Amino acid sequence: MKAAIITASARASAGIYEDTSGEILKTGLQKLGYEVFDVVIVPDDVKQISDAISSALSAHVDLIVTTGGTGISPTDVTPEATAPHIQKLLPGIPEALRAFSREKVPTADLSRGLAGTNSSTLIINLPGSPGAVKDGLVIIERLAGHIHEQLRGKDHG
To answer: pLDDT tens digit string along 73-92?
Structure first.
């Protein structure tokens, strides 16, 4: 199973600070058995985020996880960049993340992240904070295996 990680952050892409969320994701996904195919950092820009998603889809990865840009500030555009790539929306994944996180961080309910599939690839938007990424890894561990099986055509039976 191959995974791609896309961090949306103007400051991290400019080298102003280190992309800790992307590194947490890389380590966590590797522990879940994914080969991390690519880790990219792009600014909070719809076209650049969308291009990074397109590139990962072209590489036929099984999982694309974005981190950052899911909030409500003017620069938070990751859901808008992701939406055109989703063929089947999976609203339960962001719902599960918000439910899991809200007792620790009440503002978790403000995350606008999306999740869905494009052909055989699962795409998930996570918030940019390290804590949210750790919570996201819990949800990925719970659900991704079953989703990957379904995308490969495994029967419900």
So the answer is: 999 999 999 999 999 999 99
Q: What is the pLDDT of residue 156?
A: 65
Read off the CATH number of the domain in which 58 is found: 3.40.980.10
Strand order in the sheet with 121-126: 35-42, 2-8, 63-67, 121-126, 115-118, 88-89
SS3 (DSSP) at 8: strand
pLDDT digit string, tens, across residues 54-69: 999 999 999 999 999 9
Tokens of residue 97, six digits: 């993340």
- Domain total in the chain: 1
Q: Which of 73, 99, 89 is nearest to 124 (CA)?
A: 89
Domain membership of residue 156 (yes or no) is no
